[in-house]
Design brief:
This is MBL fold metallo-hydrolase. One of its GO terms (molecular function) is beta-lactamase activity. With 269 residues, this protein is an alpha/beta fold. It has helices at residues 44-53, 71-74, 77-84, 92-97, 160-164, 179-184, 189-196, 204-214, 234-245; strands at residues 2-7, 14-22, 28-38, 63-65, 88-91, 108-111, 117-119, 122-128, 137-143, 146-151, 170-174, 221-225, 254-256, 263-267. A hairpin with an 8-residue loop joins strand 8 (122-128) and strand 9 (137-143). Helix 8 (204-214) runs parallel beside helix 9. The longest helix is centred in the C-terminal third of the chain and has 12 residues, at 234-245. The relative contact order is 0.15. The mean pLDDT is 96.
């Protein structure tokens, strides 16, 4: 399995997940790989450029999965799906809450009751998250005996999260803000309350608490994601997570996703 990021943050999100055979340079091969895109918060042109940067043509994608209806996650989904004939997997709540310009031209695959989905070689396990959206979902992807879990846009450490994210080989984990920076920021009080509230976004501290409960010696990568450009710094996210990974000897497996570049392909083996 492999994963890569188109970009991560409030200006646009997108994550590539691939399973199957790979070339020596670890890029996916269209003939023997299932590759999906989770969210697309970019314009069509920007999404195409960012996907190409990772060695892919959007026509090689098997599907787009949507986490929720906020524009930084769904803003570019419709145009990309329409142009390339891609099915869109999402909950009915997300479908209802999103403004589609031409819904009849789209192939929606509804996730009912967070039931598992089979998309090519990937088994996908959707799960509920606490966020201020209609019916948000995040995903764990399995291929053979490997698993990659995604956890972003989460307001608090809900009891079920540690169970869902057990025994992962790769984890993408939201580190949205540092509490002190959020408190001191220029954001209006109402926005600060939303971001730091129970249905907002994870702080570095809460992300570290989640990681502490699920980290194990077999974890091959942890990617800190959805960092606020105003209310966080890569060094602060790293400082929060490294002490959790250090006792396991995993500090070299920590990566930071950024808004402009996302992150390059990371292979899970």
């Amino acid at each position: 399995m492999r994963l890569a990021g188109l970009g991560s943050g409030s200006a646009g999100n997108g994550i590539l997940i691939a399973a199957g055979s790979s070339q020596p340079d670890s890029l996916p091969r269209a003939d023997s790989t299932t590759t999906v895109l989770v969210d697309c918060g970019f314009t069509l042109k920007e999404a195409e450029l960012r996907i190409a940067r990772h060695g892919l043509d959007p026509a090689q994608l098997e599907a787009i999965l949507v986490t929720h209806e906020h524009s930084d996650h769904v803003g570019g989904v419709e145009r990309l799906a329409r142009k390339y004939g891609l099915p869109i997997y999402l909950t009915r709540g997300t479908w209802l809450a999103t403004r589609w310009s031409k819904p009849d031209a789209l192939n929606f695959q509804f996730i009912e009751g967070y039931a598992a989905q089979q998309i090519g070689l990937l088994t996908v396990f959707p799960y509920a998250i606490p966020h201020d959206a209609r019916e948000p979902a995040q995903y764990v992807f399995r291929y053979q005996d490997k698993q990659i879990g995604l956890l972003t846009d989460v307001g608090h450490y809900a009891p079920h999260l540690a169970q869902v994210l057990q025994a992962l080989d790769g984890l993408l984990l939201e580190c949205n803000h540092e509490l002190a920076l959020l408190d001191e920021s220029s954001y209006p009080a109402r926005l600060k309350q939303r971001i730091g509230g129970r249905f907002g976004h994870l702080s570095n501290c809460t992300a570290a608490a989640i990681l502490r409960d699920i980290a194990h010696s077999g974890l091959q990568c942890v990617i800190a994601a959805h960092l606020s450009q105003e209310n966080n710094r890569p060094a602060l996210a790293r400082a929060a997570l490294e002490p959790v990974l250090a006792p396991l000897g995993l500090t070299d497996r920590l990566h930071i996703a950024c808004q402009e570049q996302g992150f390059d392909w990371i292979k899970i083996q």
